[in-house]
Amino acid sequence: MIKELNKNRKCSKNEKNRKISSDDEIKNVSDSDEAFVEIDLSKEDFDVDDVIVLDRNFQVNNFVLVKFDTKKTVYHYVGIVEEQKKKSFFVISFLKYFICLRIETKRKTVLICLFALLSLYILLQLSQVNNLTVAKYFPGNHSIALVIAHPDDEAIFFSPTLLYLSKIKHFQMHVLCVTNGNFYGLGEVRSKELFRSCYEYGLEKEQVYLLNDDMFYDHPSIRWNNISMLAKKLELILEERSIDTVLSFGPYGCSGHPNHRDVHLTVRTLTSYRRFFMTDVCFLRYYGGIFEVIYTYFLSSEYKAFFLSWDVLKTFKAMSSHLSQFRYHWILVRYVLINDWTVYDINARVGNELPPY
Q1: DSSP-assigned letter for residue 205
Q2: How far apart are CA 306 and CA 297, in angstroms?
Q3: Which contacts (CB < 8 Å, 24+ apart) does range 321-326 have?
C-alpha cells in the first residue's frame, strides 16, 4: 500500500489517482508517530521540497498525503484523502497562516535582539577608542604637530584627531602647513580659511604655522625635488615649539596628491621624533562610512592608534571655513569619522618598519 518516494521524484498519474477510502486506512496513517506532509497536486511541477508541514489530522481533498520517515530520511506516499474526511479548508488555511506568522515573528524578534546586542557591543567598544589610544600612545604631557600640505587638509583628513587631542589640557596641539594653496591664485584667501578652520578645533592663531615658501608650492602634478631642505625647515619649527610627536600623511597621501606624498617623505626623515602616519585605503574604503569604521577598528593591526568622532557637525563647520574649496562630497570621506595611525616610536617600543613608499 505504501510506496517509497525519492526526495525529488514527482508523483505519477497512478499515484495521483489513488484514494484512501477506508476509515481503518486513515486511522493507521493518523496514528503513526511519523510526521505528515501535504503536497498540492494543482501545481504543474512540484517535488517533495515544496511541501508544507501540517498537523497529522489535517486531511484536505485533492492533496497528496505523504509520510516522512525522519530516521530513513525518505518520503512515503500514502494517497489522496476522501472528500468526507477533509476539514474546513478556510479553517486549515487560517491555522497554517497563524502558525507560520507566529514562527516568523519569533524569528524576527530573535534576529532583532541579536542585532541590538551586537550593535551595543560595537558601540561600547568604539566609545573607548579615543581614551585607549591616548592612554597607550600619549601618556603624560606632549607637544604634538600635525604637518599638512594645504589649507583644508586638516578638516578633510584629520578632523577626529584634532577634535580629541585639542581638548586635552596637558597637550599642546599645533598645525604646520607647508603651502598656502596658491595654485589658482587664492593663496591669501586660503591662508585665512586655514586659521578660521583651526579655530573651530580650538586652536589659537599662535598654534597654526604657515610655511609658505616659494620652493614648496601647491601643484596637483609636480613633485618637490628639495625634500631635504623642507625637512630642515620643519625641524627648526619643531624644535622652536618643543614638539615631540609629529602626525602626517601616509605614503599615498590619503588622496594621492603629490604634495601630500612629499610631505610624508619629509616627515619620514625626522627620525628624532615620534611619527604617526595616516593609513591609506582603496577607493571603496575611502567612502566606506560607518562600515569602514567597524572594519578598521576590528580588523586592523595592534600597532594602530585610533581616533573616532561622531561630531560630524563640528567637522562640517571646520570644512565650511574653506569656502573657496568646499565640496559636499568631503563629508562622505571615511576620515571624517575615523583616523587610524601607524605608529613609529623613536624608542622602538613598537618595533615595526616604515611603510613602503
Answers
A1: G
A2: 8
A3: 321/155, 321/193, 321/196, 321/197, 321/199, 321/200, 322/151, 322/152, 322/155, 322/190, 322/193, 322/194, 322/197, 323/193, 324/186, 324/189, 324/190, 324/193, 325/151, 325/152, 325/181, 325/190, 325/193
Q: Write the pLDDT tens digit of every residue in 2-28.
A: 333 333 444 444 444 444 444 444 444
**DSSP reduced 3-state for 312:** helix
Which of the four pLDDT bands, split at 50, 70 and 90, describes residue 131?
Answer: confident
Cell numbers standing for residue 8: 525529488
Q: What is the pTM of this model?
A: 0.67
Residue with cell 618637490: 224
The region of weakest confidence among 65-69, 166-170, 288-292, 302-306 is 65-69
How far, CA to CA in Å, does 103 sit from each of 51, 83, 272, 322?
Answer: 17, 30, 65, 55
> CA–CA separation, 320 vs 328, rounded Å?
10
C-alpha pair distances (Å), 123 with each of 32, 126, 252, 340? 52, 5, 30, 17
What gap in Å lies between CA 100 and CA 87, rounded to an integer?
Answer: 19
Q: How far is CA 123 from the centre of its chain?
A: 13
Q: All 3 cell numbers of residue 250?
A: 601616509
